[in-house]
């Protein structure tokens, strides 16, 4: 009986132990995200309403996880209060991966307010764009690119008229620190 159980376990595990070319082909996130892996730091601003522009220190940390099949992104924006303390105004986390079709880049983002969303992601060789619809703000679009100095430059735009006109409400320029 013992030999029978051992043989059955061996046969059951055989498919897991074999390597085929299909099993070895692993989809990796788009190359631009692999280029961005590291730590980033710099200045940013955002504006909610007219004349309410606020300066921030923005930091982004990107690292490959799950065997390099996913890029984890942590973003933290702080502003200095009157007491010199760094108050968190932006706290987000996202994962970028490739869909089950092995081609489509996907992003799921989480906010410090407990919200999460699946993002429409467009990838270019020098950056990416992502967009979403927010019931409070309308359409939001973010455009990121690496500039000629290798800096991460990203701007956010809002449209209250379904994409006919866009207003910039945030911008950040980050330098790689690690």
Describe the structure.
- The chain is mainly beta and 178 residues long.
- The protein has one domain: Calycin beta-barrel core domain (Lipocalin).
- The chain contains three helices and ten strands, in the order H-H-H-E-E-E-E-E-E-E-E-E-E.
- The chain has a ten-stranded antiparallel β-barrel.
- A hairpin with a 5-residue loop joins strand 1 and strand 2.
- The longest helix has 16 residues.
- It is globular.
- The termini are far apart.
Quick description:
The protein is mainly β and 178 residues long. Helix content is 14%, strand content 55%. The model is unreliable at 18-23 (pLDDT under 50).
Largest β-sheet summary: 10 strands, antiparallel, barrel
CATH superfamily: Calycin beta-barrel core domain
Report strand %: over 45%
The parts where pLDDT drops under 50 for at least 5 residues are 18-23
CATH class: Mainly Beta
Spell out the helices and strands N to C.
Answer: HHHEEEEEEEEEE
Structural class comes to mainly beta
Report the total helices.
3
Major β-sheet strand ordering: 1-2-3-4-5-6-7-8-9-10
Mean pLDDT: 88
As for the number of domains, it is 1
Q: CATH topology, what is it called? A: Lipocalin
Overall geometry comes to: globular
Annotation, overall tally of beta strands: 10
Helix content: 10-25%
**From the 3D coordinates, which CATH architecture would you assign?**
Beta Barrel
Termini separation? 58 Å
Radius of gyration: 21 Å
């Amino acid at each position: 009986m013992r030999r029978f159980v051992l043989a059955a376990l061996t046969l059951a595990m055989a498919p897991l132990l074999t390597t085929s070319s299909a099993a070895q082909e692993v989809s990796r996130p788009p190359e631009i995200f692999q280029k961005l892996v590291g730590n980033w730091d710099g200045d940013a601003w955002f504006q909610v309403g007219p004349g309410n522009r606020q300066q921030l220190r923005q930091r982004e940390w990107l690292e490959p996880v799950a065997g390099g099949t996913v890029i984890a992104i942590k973003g933290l924006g702080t502003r200095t209060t009157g007491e010199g303390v760094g108050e968190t105004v932006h706290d987000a986390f996202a994962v970028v991966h490739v869909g089950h079709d092995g081609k489509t880049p996907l992003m799921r983002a989480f906010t410090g307010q407990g919200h999460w969303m699946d993002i429409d992601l467009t990838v270019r060789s020098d950056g990416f764009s992502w967009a979403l619809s927010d019931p409070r703000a309308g359409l939001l679009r973010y455009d990121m690119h690496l500039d000629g100095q290798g800096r991460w430059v990203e701007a956010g735009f809002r449209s209250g008229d379904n994409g006919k006109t866009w207003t910039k409400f945030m911008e950040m320029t980050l330098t790689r620190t690690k």
